[in-house]
Amino acid sequence: MSGEISILHLLLEASIVVQAVMLILVGMSVASWSMIFKRKKVIKEAIIDAKKFEDKFWSGVDLSKLYAEVSARQSNIGMEALFKAGFKEFARLHKSSRQQPAAVMEGAQRAMRVGLSREVERLETNLPFLATVGSISPYIGLFGTVWGIMNSFIALGAVQQATLAMVAPGIAEALIATAIGLFAAIPAVIAYNKFSHQVELLESSYANFVEEFSNILHRQSVNSIEAA
């Protein structure tokens, strides 16, 4: 209990600059944890949705029926969004450019690439902030520490006889700033690395789906021309 009181006392007795540094770091930590929980939920849902859609897509369902089912929803994300964008553009161009399968495929692939870029951007939301917190928090804490130690030594110069009891509180309060900086940085770095890896895996999965779906659309386009 005394340890907690002494730490609280140090925080309250710290200089304005050190207190401001601590408040900034606490605010960054709270914001990063909020974003960590939000990104975790979004990416987890994206992984589950991708698996479900792939299972349905490769189950042999008719693509027109699948497109109608997907379009009936108010919003589409992940592979659903890529499929909807590609099939919609394919159907539109297939009617107006029936004898030009290359133009049809180019338009469908372009639509899916745009959709892929948007999905990756959606998944990476807030990741730059986590990277920033992880990289600058220790330095902000170090600034508070240097400032606190500097003030302690300046205060020592004004007394005739210096003792450890006079120096210790100032150094201790300064070191707390570094501790808070590390507390903010470490979770942010771990989360950023984990989420970045998961986004890369999802992006690879989306890109593979775009290629496979493009091959299916290409075969349909060629077959329809041959049948005509």
Number of helices: 7
| Major sheet characteristics | none
Q: Provide the gyration radius in Å.
A: 28 Å
Poorly predicted residue ranges: 1-5
**What is the overall silhouette?**
rod-shaped
The helicity comes to over 70%
Order of helices and strands: HHHHHHH
What amount of the residues lies in strands?
Answer: under 5%
Q: Give the tally of β-strands.
A: 0
Structural class: mainly alpha
Q: How would you state the average pLDDT, rounded? A: 86
Family: Belongs to the ExbB/TolQ family.
Keywords: Cell cycle, Cell division, Cell inner membrane, Cell membrane, Membrane, Transmembrane, Transmembrane helix
Main location: membrane
Subcellular location: Cell inner membrane; Cell membrane
3D structure, described in words:
The protein is an all-alpha fold and 228 residues long. The chain has one domain. It has seven helices and no strands. Helix 2 runs parallel beside helix 7, helix 4 runs parallel beside helix 7 and helix 6 runs antiparallel to helix 7. The chain is rod-shaped, with a radius of gyration of 28 Å. The N terminus is likely disordered.
Write the layout of secondary structure elements.
Blueprint: H1 2-13, H2 16-57, H3 63-71, H4 79-96, H5 101-123, H6 127-156, H7 164-227
Helix pairs in contact: 1-7, 2-6, 2-7, 3-4, 4-5, 4-7, 5-7, 6-7
Function: Part of the Tol-Pal system, which plays a role in outer membrane invagination during cell division and is important for maintaining outer membrane integrity.
Protein name: Tol-Pal system protein TolQ
Domain MotA/TolQ/ExbB proton channel: 79-205
